[in-house]
Amino acid sequence: MTDTRRRVKVYTLNEDRQWDDRGTGHVSSGYVERLKGMSLLVRAESDGSLLLESKINPNTAYQKQQDTLIVWSEAENYDLALSFQEKAGCDEIWEKICQVQGKDPSVDITQDLVDESEEERFDDMSSPGLELPSCELSRLEEIAELVASSLPSPLRREKLALALENEGYIKKLLELFHVCEDLENIEGLHHLYEIIKGIFLLNRTALFEVMFSEECIMDVIGCLEYDPALSQPRKHREFLTKTAKFKEVIPISDPELKQKIHQTYRVQYIQDMVLPTPSVFEENMLSTLHSFIFFNKVEIVGMLQEDEKFLTDLFAQLTDEATDEEKRQELVNFLKEFCAFSQTLQPQNRDAFFKTLSNMGILPALEVILGMDDTQVRSAATDIFSYLVEYNPSMVREFVMQEAQQNDDDILLINLIIEHMICDTDPELGGAVQLMGLLRTLVDPENMLATANKTEKTEFLGFFYKHCMHVLTAPLLANTTEDKPSKDDFQTAQLLALVLELLTFCVEHHTYHIKNYIINKDILRRVLVLMASKHAFLALCALRFKRKIIGLKDEFYNRYIMKSFLFEPVVKAFLNNGSRYNLMNSAIIEMFEFIRVEDIKSLTAHVIENYWKALEDVDYVQTFKGLKLRFEQQRERQDNPKLDSMRSILRNHRYRRDARTLEDEEEMWFNTDEDDMEDGEAVVSPSDKTKNDDDIMDPISKFMERKKLKESEEKEVLLKTNLSGRQSPSFKLSLSSGTKTNLTSQSSTTNLPGSPGSPGSPGSPGSPGSVPKSTSQTAAITTKGGLVGLVDYPDDDEDDDEDEDKEDTLPLSKKAKFDS
After folding, report:
1. Is 357 a residue whose pLDDT tops 70?
2. Which of 462, 480, 487, 783 is 20 to 30 A off residue 666, Cα-Cα?
3. pLDDT at 743 over 80
4. What are phi and psi of 526, to 5 degrees?
């Protein structure tokens, strides 16, 4: 089948139900392998790019309009149209579509079963607007039906909205509302309710501006009182005019601003109280109403911000001691709502807003308010403070540091916040949780600034630990003077958990400030008293605090823990928990496992030396036995310092050396001239030659006794070290009663560069060794002070297994034997 090309424009329907021109090109039809069917193709006439590739589906409804337009829907929200330049081209493509669907080309729509809304979607895009019935009492039912029938179709909604705008129809409807109310025409009022509700769902800003004008808005609310679903009408107008009172805490002189505030309140009331809760399908239809309220709030904030006299009077009355309590509460509530409105501003405008409030003295005013006894006023002030901290914590920090130079610690703003957190009377501590979040934001180094001249972090944390930390920790210290918490009720436990959460945050994010404070004030010991609390969540908070400290692997902390025996409360809690498999059990085991895995030597020794008897029977995890093994390995290394230093050297070779450097060194090792070795001497340091047998063998005996007790009666200890990724020489130590420890390198029986390769070559069995000229390049190992053995450790088992597998395949030149 030959393709026929015709010039067309491609249109798509956008989210606003408007047709967008996608470009001009030439249309053809043909089989597309990728789509597995006959398809419509449109290529742009400008560059030949593909504007459209659409498979002709057998069940899709295509419609031909005005001889030159074909419209269809690709998906639920994706409509397409082809507008042809010539009728002949449209007819030809229409025949192709009908042929695929098995329809007669004489029809204007290929599918009969299309619901009404779909048919209306395909209405001619250029058809004339909607004609509204005359606005008369007798035709209200007809008008209501017209509005209801137009809502499902985007095109009909658009035409209806234009007709309502152009003819001033809303005001005419509101005149009919007065007539119906006077005549008590309930049926007419029910129709007006449906009409006005339908107009809201048209979602048009121009219509809202008419409906929400001063002269119309109360009548619109009146229409919405007569819901047909209710037996009695609502009394929204009565509430707005008599119950709801507009309070001017500070007189507003601008009439436009006052009118805007009234309008916003009433529209918000309509949205929240008058209109029925929109269904899932209607939610998006009220988006313009949300926007109307949003932009009104932006305007109100802007107009108030520009009125300097208004803000000056506001802050003056807030801080004036002569202001009565009721008036002050109204002022604070106004300021809170003012800040809430500011959240609608764009970032740039919000910056200007808070800068204005700061210049007006909002922080000193808040300090005065927070010192008052009225809980409602304090609660509103806390909300205002949270807006400021979230917006600009640095501004708050700067204020409190300047304030500290003039005032006592007790009346500092941050200390007031901490006191309110501690004294929160709410059983659930809702306010305390909010305040703790604000404090954490203020002490978080992540949002602190650093400039060329000063570092905010250093200055503020120095201030905080000097002036505020003692207030924060006061309830903790007061409650932990004995071995058990002096108060262990739920509310106290919740408060202490909040304090511990903040202290844990400080341990993680602050460095020497919190360390000095914890060690000097013995804070950890006091925190661990809470391990005896009957509230599991509080005991876990205390444990988490200690776990965070141990996780830092800081020896200052470790020495403090050991000196004060601060594992004792943890071990007690572990034993008291018994065999219960719960979070406490898992958390304590995890802490000890961390010490084992990270090989924190000082803590490992401390735990085993002081608490092993209490923990040795725990066998459902290997953590404590693993700690004991670590401890024994440390003791072995302490008794054999040369063993430890040798192991460090070899481990560095195995794990930390660059692979290429390693290969070079290996070549140097095995290519060392054998002539450098002198016959007949073992490599022993001069100091060793003067030692007698007892001096050398005494540590050997001790070492072997420990090995027998721990493992078995073996007499040889293998140390296998992986000198490279490819070759794994093995060193073997044999203990004998000789007066010297001879460590010689066995040479290869194969040729190496620079070596004769004969059986009697230097270093081979039966041949004397030699003293190396350069000890860094030989396999000779010297002993000083009685090197007696190299032990293997469990964490090296995997590597050792691999070494054993490889050892058999190595040439003899790459094995070094220690013998006497």
Report:
1. yes
2. 783
3. no
4. -70, -40
**pLDDT band, residue 343 (cuts 50/70/90):** confident
The tokens of 410 are what? 């007790």
pLDDT on residue 766: 39
Residues 6+ apart with CB under 8 A from 808: none
Contact of 39 with 46, CB cutoff 8 Å:
no
DSSP assignment string, 746-773: PPPSS--TT----TT-TTSTTS-----S
Mean pLDDT, range 73-93, rounded to an integer = 81
In the numeric block, which tokens belong to residue 19?
Answer: 């047709």
Backbone phi, psi, residue 746, to 5° = -85, 130
The whole-angstrom separation of Cα 340 and Cα 604 is 55
**Side-by-side strand order, sheet with 78-84:** 50-55, 37-44, 19-32, 6-13, 78-84, 69-75, 63-65
Report which of 469, 338, 455, 456 is spatially closest to residue 414, judged by C-alpha positions.
469
Question: Between helices 362-370 and 347-360, what is the axis angle to 10°?
Answer: 70
30 close to 38: Cβ distance less than 8 angstroms: yes
Residue 156: partners with Cβ closer than 8 Å, 6 or more residues away:
120, 123, 130, 149, 150
Helix (H) or strand (E) holding 334: helix 325-342
Question: How close are the terminal C-alpha atoms of the chain, in Å?
Answer: 97
794-811: b or e for each residue (b if 16 or more CB lie within 10 Å)?
A: eebeebbeebeebeeeee
Q: Which long-range contacts (CB under 8 A, 24 or more apart) does 411-415 make?
A: 411/367, 411/371, 412/467, 412/468, 413/363, 413/366, 413/367, 413/370, 414/439, 414/442, 414/464, 414/467, 414/468, 415/467, 415/468, 415/471
Strand runs labelled E in 76-159: 78-84
Q: How many CB atoms lie within 10 A of CB 401?
A: 18
The pLDDT score that the predictor gives to residue 772 is: 40
Distance CA 554, CA 572 (A): 24
Q: 489 burial class (0-12, 13-18, 19+ CB within 10 angstroms)?
A: exposed
Q: How far apart are CA 539 and CA 534, in angstroms?
A: 8
Record the tokens describing residue 103, joined without a space: 């329809």
* Cα–Cα distance for residue pair 461/479, rounded to 1 Å: 26
Q: What is the SS3 assignment for 389-409?
A: HHHCHHHHHHHHHHHHCCCCH
Nearest Cα residue to 458 out of 401, 503, 539: 401
Between CA 368 and CA 365 the distance in angstroms is: 5
CA dist 632 and 709 (Å) reads: 12
Q: Alpha-carbon Rg of the chain, whole angstroms?
A: 44
Provide the residue type at 85 as one letter. Answer: Q
Residue at token pair 């006077």? 182
Kindly list the strands in the beta sheet with 730-733, ordered across the sheet, starting from the edge strand earlier in the chain. 717-720, 730-733, 816-818
The b/e string for 181-196 (b: 16+ C-beta within 10 A; e otherwise) is beeebeebbbbbbbbb
Q: What is the pTM of this model?
A: 0.57
